[in-house]
Amino acid sequence: MTTSARPRLCLLPGLDGTGRLYAPLQDALSAHADIEVLAYDSTRFHDYPTLADALAPALERHRDGVLVTESFAGPLGVLLAHRYPERIRALVMAASFVRPPLPLSGAAAALLQRLPAVAPPLFALEHLLAGSGLPPPLRAEFEAIVATLPFQVMRQRALAALRVDVTRELASLQVPLLYLQARQDRLVWPRAGREVLRLAHTAHHAVIDAPHFLFQMAPIPAATEIRRLLDCLRRDACR
Question: Model-level pTM?
């Protein structure tokens, strides 16, 4: 990344795939970088390798992009950075993982697979993801996304996350990696972040006082850490 170039951030959405919940982070970073949300099809399920294939054309349009991922999208970002090291300048993972994030992920996957195709109550989802609750505009967006996203797609993506393993790809990465841990995360346990730091050669770590919806509930602190990474890249000082 040259000193004169405006950084390019490629945002990979979480479980919903829409990117519509990225608005707070985009607002916090739009003055400092060009931002593109790489949404994926919300009407059908694709596993991680297939999603990586689908996003390849978008990545091939640019060089020196910084991938920004949250939760479900973390393993996808690792796969893409592994496949396209000449196009990805750095990777950001927020409240994410490279192996199943829960201590009993296998049992959780088996239970989820047997549950009836009925989405959990919105208030329960919001409490799990956002803690004390989303601001009204984001809550309305969240409710609209849940209402339109087929539950079967959401379940299959959750199952993919509970079975994923991209540790080998992560260990081979040479690009700088920033891991943002949500201090109040009820979904992704701290050991997931510790594993990323243990395996990645060039990982930096920051803890932000936020629930699992880190980018939505704490966009300013998250943007500050991402800007530090961009400055490090600009000075070619990330080691």
Answer: 0.91
